[in-house]
Every structure is written in C-alpha cells, then in structure tokens.
Amino acid sequence: MAGVKLENVTMKYGSLIALNNVSFECPEGEFFTLLGPSGAGKTTTLELIAGIKQPTHGLIHIGDRMVNHDAPEERDVAMAFENYALYPQFSVYDNIAFPLRAPRRKGELTSAEEKERVHDITSLLGIEEYLDRKPQQLSGGQKQRVSLARAMVRRPKLYLLDEPIAHLDAKLKISARSTLKLLAHQLGTTILYVTHNYREALGLSDRIMAIRKGRVEQIGTPEEMYEKPQTDFVARLMGDPPINLVDVEVVSENARIYLQSEDLFRFPLEKALIPDMEKASWEEDGKKMVRMGVRAKNVRISREKSSEEAFELPVYVTVREAKNTVITFELTHTLFQGFVSNGQRMKVGDKVWVDIDQDGLYFFRRSMELIK
Ligand code: ADP
Ligand code: MG
Fold this sequence. Notes:
The chain is an alpha+beta fold and 372 residues long.
C-alpha cells in the first residue's frame, strides 16, 4: 500500500476550471474522504489519481513516486465507480475476478486462490448467490455491490471509491457502511472515498477533505470538521438539519454587545464569544455584521419565556420525525430551525419562545449566499 499526495493540481475542461490548485496529502493506511456537493470536483480528483485523465497543472504522487507520466495500469490502484461499469457479457463471478486475471496469467495466483478471493469479498458484501448471473439480471443496489467487490478483490496500493454505495437503499447502505469500515480495517490499506453524504463521511473517515467548486475548503478529522468548521460552507455541509446561518447586526450599547436580526430578535452576546465574533465580522452600509451559526440542537423552543434572552417568533413549518418535531421559523432572508419533542404540540402560526444556547454559537465570514 501507499499514500497519495497532490501538489497544486489544476484541471481544466476547456474554459471550465474543475479543480483549482488542489493540494492534499493522504498518508498510507488512511481512510480519507472527499466530501462536497455535486460538481465540486470529487470524481475528477479520483480520475486524475487513477490516471484516466491528465491534470492541466500540478503533480500527483503515489507512495514516493511521481506518477504523472505513468499509465493507469502502472499505478496499481483499484477504482469503484458510482455508475458500476460492469461487463454485460460476463457473469458476476467473471466481473469480480477480472482484475485478478492478469496476476493469474503471470502465475502469481492459483485458480483456487482466485476463487477464495472472490468468495471472501462476495460473502462480506452479501452477493454470493448472484455469482452466475449477468449484470442485467441485477438490481441497481446489487450491481453497485458487484462493482465494489470488483474494486476490493485486488490488493492494490490504493483504493479509489467514488460514491460506491450511493445507489443502495437506506437499510443496505447502513450495512454496506459497516462492511466498508470492516474492510478498511482488515485490509489496513489507503482508501480515498468520495461522498456527498456527511454522515457517511463522519462514520467512515480518518480524515475528511471538504471540497467546493474545485477548491479545498477544509481538511480535518470528523470531530474537527463537525465541531470546528472554518467556513460557513463546511458548517452547512456537516449536519442535518443543516446548521442555521443568519447574518446579524452587531450593536454596541451600554457596554454590551447585542446580536440583532432586523426586528425579529436581539440578544446580548456572552463576553467570552466576542473575540471570535470580532474576527468574523465585516462592515456593510455603515453597519457591523456577522454571520452567526447555530445548530438546531442548540436552539431551545418553548411555549413560555424561558430566559431573559429568549425572543418570540411565529412557527412557519413543522415536520414530525421519529422522536422530535423540527420547527422552522422564517427570518427575513433565511430559515431557522430547532427541535421540540413530539409531545409538545406546536402549530403553524403559533408564537413561541426561542432561546439560543450560546455554547453552540459559531461565527463566520460570509462566503456564500443564503437561500430560503
Ligand atoms: P463531482 O464528482 O464532485 O460531482 P466532477 O469531478 O464530476 O464533480 O465534476 C467537476 C466539474 O467538472 C463539474 O462542473 C463537471 O460538470 C465538470 N466536468 C466533469 N467531467 C467533465 C468532462 N469530461 N468534460 C467537461 N466538463 C466536465
Ligand atoms: Mg462525481
């Protein structure tokens, strides 16, 4: 196995810049996840590492070798794609065994060893009973597991897995996630994993790289990405419901600092949070502004005024989930959400009290538009 390093990699498709000066290092043995929305440049990054595409600029290293000039087959990486790319004329067994056939010809692997490898991976992924079928006789989820099995059957330097479980239904996804984690642990090998699902990223990764419009936004452990997002974009990426972001005015009065959103709310900021707030704030139309972030779990909602700082808002939407109801409020430019337990009945239009747990407050510069 080997680590991977990208140095100042830029990839253009004509005039479109898909990757813009991307650098990162994934050490040997790490489960490293590229997390970002569709179009961010995740697949392109894997394709450049696999050698399917050539970067416009920059260097790609696998282990201690610079591989820019190496053909894909010389790089010794295995890649599983979101869109399966199975051979339709081959059985499931032959599809999975295909990457082992070159070593077989070279006598590195006996027929019995090949069977054993296929057996090990297919029993782990629960697809043993389909070995004689053709790909067109499989559901999307089954094809995806075959594609994953084909990528994982070899022992390459590096695995590149591009949304390998995106098409599985919710229940299978959870078991596939555990399987992947187990596989990663058993193989102890380097895995570059792509997903747009933050739960998957949090659950599987040693480290996560958030990517946005071809640029690296932040790299960190799951805890760092969730607890210490450095930008509004990363904060929004890491959570469901997504973190509330509101641009508020910073008002100084009677030696206190207040955060104020139009005429909807105003509360005094705890002194300890002032330095963080100051760092993120900006001037606009003669006002001092800051982007405030607070997760739904840090928003307290109640029928009675629960503290001096609480403010009143009308309920805009309610969505009942298993244990809690998500309450949405409408602010001038965005939406704001919190939870109440299902026992507390709150109807659309009810005026309720909202109180923010200031331990859960974040402050960001504005780096993206907020949309309702
Ligand atoms: P992701 O995998 O994060 O969804 P991609 O790497 O597939 O993103 O794409 C990044 C950007 O590059 C997107 O804007 C996409 O439309 C564009 N792109 C990807 N492949 C090609 C291609 N072969 N030709 C032109 N543009 C492409
Ligand atoms: Mg993609």
